[in-house]
Amino acid sequence: DADVTQTPRNRITKTGKRIMLECSQTKGHDRMYWYRQDPGLGLQLIYYSFDVKDINKGEISDGYSVSRQAQAKFSLSLESAIPNQTALYFCATGASGGSTPNEQFFGPGTRLTVL
Amino acid sequence: AQSVTQLGSHVSVSEGALVLLRCNYSSSVPPYLFWYVQYPNQGLQLLLKYTTGATLVKGINGFEAEFKKSETSFHLTKPSAHMSDAAEYFCAVSPYSASKIIFGSGTRLSIRP
Q1: How do residues B34-84 score in pLDDT, each as one tens digit?
Q2: Do A40 and B9 count as a contact with CB atoms less than 8 A apart?
Q3: Are residues B101 and A104, on separate chains, in Cβ contact within 8 Å?
Q4: What percent of chain B stands above pLDDT 70?
Q5: Which residues contact residue A82 at a Cβ distance below 8 angstroms, ignoring those fewer than 6 apart?
Q6: What gap in Å lies between CA B52 and CA A115, rounded to an integer?
Q7: pLDDT digits (tens, 9 = 90+) for A30-68
Q8: Torsion of CA B69, B31, B38, A28, to 10 degrees
Q9: What is the rounded distance in angstroms from the CA atom of residue B45 to the CA atom of residue B106?
């Protein structure tokens, strides 16, 4: 079973629609992250959360919002989708301690297309 | 500010040849360094990481990387490429004091038969 799961894996929507992408993890990690990937740009951080009560903006948070419903769940919302939000979205987790400092573990990604 | 530069957005090598993917970073504090690999239609998977200690780091699938502080580099190598190595590779830096990772723009590795 995958440690970090994302739903849906693929989504096509229309401009102006509200979209929610969900991420769940069974790794017991306290930290969770949302990234978007565009060709040639690598991964850009949208939002991150170090625990349920801690939410922080990343480099490109405009047009997005997040909710940390539980330690294991972190969802990303596009309140009113626009075509330039078409991208591959990744959720990642990390642990604040232990033997793997700052390492992140990634989900399989959600491919979002906004028409 | 931290940044990562990967030289070459696309590298093509013959099967059996040396793989060398270049990565330079800038960081105002000592960093953790990572290489991740992304196979088609999959998420990112950790190849190897440098935290402290030995500067030559061995990872999965025969890859290794050497941390050179004086050159601010963390180049990824594999002595003999295999067709299954075709993927996109990301170098990343994370300062000790932070909990975020800064990714490079990626290098797509192609393997010629």
Answers
A1: 999 999 888 899 999 998 888 899 999 999 999 998 899 999 999 999 999
A2: yes
A3: yes
A4: 97
A5: A15, A16, A63, A114
A6: 47
A7: 999 999 999 878 899 999 999 999 999 998 999 999 999
A8: 150
A9: 13
